[in-house]
Amino acid sequence: MDNSNLSLATDTPIKAREQDLIGRIPFAERLADILKSAAGPESLVIGLYGPWGSGKTSVINLVKNALSRKDDDGKAGVSVVRFEPWNYLTAEQLLAQFLKEVEGALDKDAYGRRKLFGKLRGKRPEVLNAFAAYSEALLMTAGAAASLAGAPLAGVAVPAFGNRLTSRLRKSADRAGSVSAKKQRLEEELLKFDGRVVVIIDDIDRLPNDQVRMVFQLVASLAKLPKINYLLSFDEEVVTRALSEVQKCDGAEYLEKVVQVPVRLPSISSGDLERILLKDIDAIFEAFSYRREDLDDKRWNGVCLTFLNNRFSTIREVRRFSNALKAKLSILPRFCCFEDVVALAVLELKVPKVVDWVRVHKDFLCGTIGSSSYTISGDPKDTLANLKERFSGLVPSSEAKWAVEAVCRLFPRVANKTGMSHCVYYSRKSLNAIWRADSFDLYFHSNIPDGIDVHEVLDALNVSEGGVLLEDLHRHAEAGSMIDFVSAMRAHVSTLEEGRAEIVTRACLLVLGLSKEKRYAPFASTSADLELIRLIELLFKRLGPTKSDEILRASVDESKGRVIYPLALFLIGQLNSLNDTGNGGCKTLLPEGGIFEHSDAVCAKVGEDAAARNLFLDDECHYALILLKERKPNEFMAYAKRIANADGAGCASFLSFGSKRYTLLGSNEVTSFSFDKTAVAKVVGLAKVDGLLAEACTDGSFFELPEDCQLVAAAFCVAIRDDDDRNEVTAVEAGMLLARWRRNCRRV
Questions:
Q1: Residues 679-692 as b or e (16 or more Cβ within 10 Å = b)
Q2: Residue 489: which of 517, 461, 511 has the closest Cα?
Q3: What percent of the chain is modeled with pLDDT above 90?
Q4: Which of 543, 575, 602 is the last residue of a domain?
Q5: Is residue 519 part of a domain?
Q6: Angle at 88 between CA 83 and CA 93, to 5 degrees
Q7: Scanning 173, 502, 600, 737, which has the fewest C-beta atoms within 10 Å of its C-beta?
Q8: What average pLDDT does range 122-142 have in this prediction?
Q9: In a shared domain, residues 314 and 409
Q10: What are phi and psi of 52, to 5 degrees?
Q11: Which of 21, 93, 515 is nearest to 277 (CA)?
């Protein structure tokens, strides 16, 4: 890695012509020409308008250089005063330093011209004497400071600053006459003077409101003198608002009275900004030793289109993004996809609350098997509208549409479910893409849940012997903190040292099924077993297919029922990867033959358990039954028929297993159910369902079932009674029928 390219980009404005990357030199020189040529009896005030970060200071530096250069005929350039008002807290300080710097510029200008014409020994120019007298009078007169502070000019006491002046200056001021007389004399001398001065005041928009007023009152009234021109730089909107607040007037009108020539900074062309942005990204790509073959070209093009094109309006924003990207790449594991890290860096810069939302909605975004929100409700238009509404509370309304598109670009599942499939591109090449359930956490790995000691986590990964690690996992299972502890291990799995993967994997396999801890949240439901499976998947990646197969084989052979059921979820994922012939399939973590052998071994143990009880009633057995149905369809069918036709409770439990549940986006509340009535009919006759359920309602066994199981059964009856072609029933309809059943049961 080239560390020389890892230093953060500075926000320092350019100072020389050769640093100009966006072609603003001609603009700056034309501005300088205007200031040079304006040498009449009236001072010229030019306002350079532009938003924060648009490059005003860089342009001013170029203007200053142009003003200081000699003309083509060898004539000396203009004297420039770079006045910085934010260094002074009071009106008196502001005025005193301003006058001092302008006098210094006049003196330098006069000296330069005397030197040019060989008149160094001449007497001090009268313009300097006149300016000194004018300055003394202003500082001695309370009216100047009071005017800057917004107070009436008449009847104001002498300020403390004036009291500190020497008695000699007081007498000198008294002898010289009024301020207006001294100003008139100075104007006369300036008109005769061959020199020119330009006062530049930058970053006025960064001053407090009262100091903004002080600067403009200074320019508008006290310092408006011949051959002294001004270049004021600020964000027009900010300054207008500040003047409106402190002056209690229309700030725009006030500004028009002070600024004679408003000039708006030319916007940077999108082409120039894109060129600078891509140059920065290219340098970062090389600095972090990425290779061209690491980049998924089509996905990168999508990232450019959604996250980079027209997302930045200033060079300052580009530099901030470059720094954020460098910092992010320095923290995340090297094998994170470059294009996804770029996209995340943009989101964190533009809409950080959306990133916070993404961080906790893995199951929804990645379609994690076992999540409560694995199924997204039907109509893509509704899903899209719900997602936009969700984001409208996280980002400005103008950014909500883009935020949705950005999430769809990163997560193909969401794009497909919202009708935004034009945003989708994914391939097997992106093995560690953020949209993959087994890679998602790599992009947020630095998080440690509250109450978890990071040192304990690191010890568990890299220090603890198998027995000690097993004890730690048991302790967290008993304490109800297994989810957080395993999640933290998964977050830091990139720190795993050589030779540790096998030890950690064996310990994790041994505690599967030990903790019943579950956590429910919209789009983010999880369990201890699900977190363990996710960690085991990452460890299997480290171990490779052959070693992983060996370890899993021993675990299945030795395991009891407790371990079998969580393993079913993992094996389903592996079978799905084998069956996925299109884009987006996850790389299998086991040899193909091993996947089938382990699946069949698990099915055999599930079959043994099924002989003794109704597995449809046990939520933990859900994925084991799915696996049995996939690998041993005849055995599953025989078992399903036996249970479903036995009694009403068995029938209801089977219907619950085969139903699909739909929820609203952002909620766990079920809104509707759907059924494959053809598949159900192969197990239990549709005409028989009513009779079995009626019997169970009569003897009360039906109402001993879990409530969601009761609701599903009611929904199925609505579907078969109302319309033979109807497969979807709302939760409200099901609830009404269930309520009627309960009333009838009470009457009996």
A1: ebeebbebeebeeb
A2: 461
A3: 18
A4: 543
A5: yes
A6: 95
A7: 600
A8: 74
A9: yes
A10: -60, 130
A11: 21
